[in-house]
Amino acid sequence: MPELRLLVRIKETDIRGDLLVPFALASVKGIGRNLAEIICDAAGVPKDMRVGYLSDEQIEKLEHVIDNPKEYGLPDHIMNRQKDRVTGQYLILTGNDWIVTQKMDIDFHKNIRSYRGIRHMFGLRVRGQRTKTTGRKGQTVGVKKKKK
What we know:
The chain folds into 2 domains: 7-78, Helicase, Ruva Protein, domain 3 (Orthogonal Bundle); 94-126. Helix content is 36%, strand content 5%. The chain has helices spanning 21-26, 33-43, 56-67, 95-111, 115-121, and strands at residues 7-10, 13-16. Strands 1-2 form a two-stranded antiparallel sheet.
């Protein structure tokens, strides 16, 4: 068995080598636990293996699956970028690409002054949650006791 590497770099993210492969992939920004397991299956990497024991070829295979999910038959509904506004493609975005794209989407909604954009501008809940009692920011509101 090869020696355990303490740090492994996958998709510009440093990952501890003692993690199991699905948990290690889930620590990459933009990849969740379910997607990580599907990526492992598509790449043919065992899920019960520590990421520090993976060979360079296996790591490259995992990155190739993340970059080209359609080649491996991954379904559209698990992608974190569905029907991209510019290209119309279904993608898996990771790391800074995911952060920048999310920021650009929020800015787009703010610029066109949509309902979602206005809620974002004022720092309110966007997805229809209650706001009467939860999500308060700033000073605590309470009952003031009378002085005796």
